[in-house]
Each structure stands twice: as structure tokens, then as C-alpha cells.
Amino acid sequence: MRGDGDGRAAGGRGGADRGRRQATARLPRPSGPYPIGTTALHLTDAGREDPWRPGHRRELMVSLWYPTGRPATGEERARYMTPAAGAHFGGDDGAARLNYGVRPGSTDWAAIRTHARQDAPARPGGPRPVVLYSPGSGDPRSWGTALVEDLASRGYVVVTVDHTHEASEVAFPDGRLATSVFPALLRRPGLDLGALLRRSLRTRVDDTRFVLDELSGLRRRPGLPTGLGGSPDLDRVGMVGHSAGGSTALQTMHDDPRIAAGINLDGRLHLPGPDGRTGVLLPGLARDGLDRPFLLMGSRSPDSGSHHRQPGRDALRRHSTGWCADLTLEGSRHGSHTDASSLLPQLARQGAIGADALARDLGDVHPDRAQLATRCYVASFFDRWLRGHDDHLLDGPSARFPEMTYER
After folding, report:
1. Beta partners for 296?
2. What is the pLDDT of residue 19?
């Protein structure tokens, strides 16, 4: 399902492990001082047709993560995925198999709990800076929860966006489960992959800008947790995304001045030519550059690394006037900046994913170090550019993170 060109081959198909107890896993604890709450919103863009489902208005599910007054306990902790979404995510046609090689039916994704209290009141003391999160191609919005919870625990309001019909599945409040159209599209003979990815990027940017519009009217939205409507500070907005979500973050920043700073976690900034194999097409942000701060964080996947190896990133660096830095996590792979780092090693110990698939997803950097580095560099960047607090981690190479190669 990795239609953005950033992925690896999927693991073997195989059926569910009959008679075997399903694996489960725990998310790492957030590191900030605040307990966190979360709530989900169903949004409909009445002015836009869904590009993947003609004749229907574009519908999205988003989640808000924010500081609250007391920690969640027991059943108060929000689910990582709903039962319906978790069953599809972990099935034959879900992203767990297609993107990460997890054996179908091997894992109880709905049993995983977050650290956030469901629908908790927002902590007084706002307004707070906002960070938008866009996941990789095929991944649901939950696949960045460890990073998102950490930012919320540090005092941010974080908004995660599901890109409907591209995400593996999106569960709506009325019980509908909108599944991805991409597996079928990618099997079509003669597919123009570049055109499909341009359409996807345009849709994702439009989704994000619509979500920003909706946040501006949050105070007027009925049924929100107490205090949440006034919590986001829309004069201080950043965006981070992984893979196709990283491309989305920077392209949205290019198109929309409301985004003050952006981070691309291992997302390509160039597209293939019409045959999907030869030629390179540069999106607008790579041709024009950016005039606000941005951070590139790459992996040691064969098609990632320094901007010198990637035409889109190189063009962006040459054409930009905003502050930027380029980081590469040595020994890492494409999944290292996501929840794969925390969840997949636990699942591997329970037989849900093989050693070869785990190595393709995460490389040989220790998963705890990958998770810590991602959290610290993302927080340092947004603290610097949205809050004016500089811990100097981004000034150059750091003895705290010798596995991180730094370029300016």
C-alpha cells in the first residue's frame, strides 16, 4: 500500500494464526509533565467532492490530543483503534500486513490502550500551540500515537488526520468503515503512478487546510470536552508527518501561510514520471522552496538519507530561504519514526512478525533510541519555532544522539 515510493515489499500473505492467542503491545509513556486527553471529531467538507468517491462529500475523522488535569486510569484510557478498525488494520487487506509484514489475524490492535483520557476536559492555561500530524500512505492516524502523545504531554494541542480512502481504514461514528482504495488502484494495468501520487498529495493538502478552517470555529462546535474549544492557538501552528504525510506537511506549509513550521519524517519530495519507473517530477514546494523553518529527518532506507541523494529534498534546500536542517538516523529504516519502533519489537517477541520483516521496517538502530531521537528532535524544533524556547539541540551534531547525522 506504500504508494508514495517510500516503502518496502509487503510480508507474505498467510492467514490468521488459528488457535493462537493474539499478540498485543504497549505504547511508551509520554515524557512531558502533563496528563493528556483525547477526543475524536467527524468532519464533512460540504464544499468538496471526495476525489476517491465521486458523488459524495469529503468526510474526515480527526483526533485532538491535549493537556488535561489528571491522568487516565483503566478503562478511561482511549483505545488505540476501534475494534472494527483494528480488525481490518490487522487483516489480509490492512496496513499492518501491507506496510509492515505483520501476520494477518495475529494481533489484537483494539486491545492496545493509549495514555490519554477519553473526552477529558482541557487543562486551563491555554491557548496552546497547535501541531497537525499526517500519517504515511496507507497508515491510519493512530500510527503516530507515541509521538503525538509525547507532544501533547509537553503542552501542545495535536490534531491527527485520517485521509479517508487512502488510510487503511477509517471508522466513522455511525459504524461505517471506509477502507482504502489504493490496493485496487495500484493493481491496475498501465497505472500512471506519478499522477496517482499527485492526486493523493493534492487531496491530503486540501484535507489539512479544511481541518485548519474547522479549528478556527472550534469554540462554536457543540459537544466538545470542557475548555477544548479555546485551547488551540491558531497563531502558532506547526505540522509534522511521516512518509507521504511528511510530503503533505511541507506542501501544505508551502500552500498555506497559517503553518509556521514543518517537519518531514522520511517522506520523498519528488514523484516518479508517468511510467512509475523513470523520470522525476518535482512538486511545487521543491521548485519554489520555503520561507519558514523546516526540518528533514531521514532514515538509512535505500531510497532515503541525505538531501544530496534525493532530488526533491536537494531542490527544496537550494530554493528555500527559511531555516532548515537535514538529519539522518543511522541504522534506521522507514518505520523507525513511527509507532513501528515501539510496537513491532513487542509483536515480534510474540511471533506476530518475522525477524526479516522487522529488520526491513526498523533496521538495526535500537528501537528505544529511534523513538527517543524522534521525540526529542521534533519537540526541540517546535519548541524553538512555536514557543521561542531553544534547547540548542538543533544547533549541530549532538553528543546526546551520536546515531544522528546532522547537515545544514
Report:
1. 264, 326
2. 55
Q: Is 66 helix (H, G, I), strand (E, B) or coil?
A: strand
Write phi, then psi, for 204 (nearest 5 degrees).
-65, -40
CA-CA-CA-CA dihedral for 363, 367, 370, 375, to nearest 10 = 150
Average pLDDT taken over every residue of the chain: 92
Task: Give the residue, 168 or 192, on which the prediction is more confident.
Answer: 168
- What pLDDT score does 192 carry? 86
Q: Is 269:288 a contact under the CB 8 Å cutoff? A: no
Which amino acid type is present at position 383? D
The model's pLDDT over 303-316, given as tens digits with 9 standing for 90+, comes to 776 667 778 899 99
Count of C-beta atoms within a 10 Å radius of residue 324: 20
DSSP 160-229: EE--TTTSSEEE-TTS-EEE-SHHHHHTSTT--HHHHHHHHHHHHHHHHHHHHHHHHTGGG-TTPPTT-T
Spatial distance between the Cα atoms of 254 and 39, rounded to a whole number of angstroms: 29
Task: Dig out the grid coordinates for 92 from the structure.
Answer: 489480509
Q: Are strands 128-134 and 232-242 parallel, antiparallel or unpaired?
A: parallel
Q: Quote the percentage of the chain above a pLDDT of 90.
A: 84
Dist. CA 126–CA 341, nearest whole Å: 32
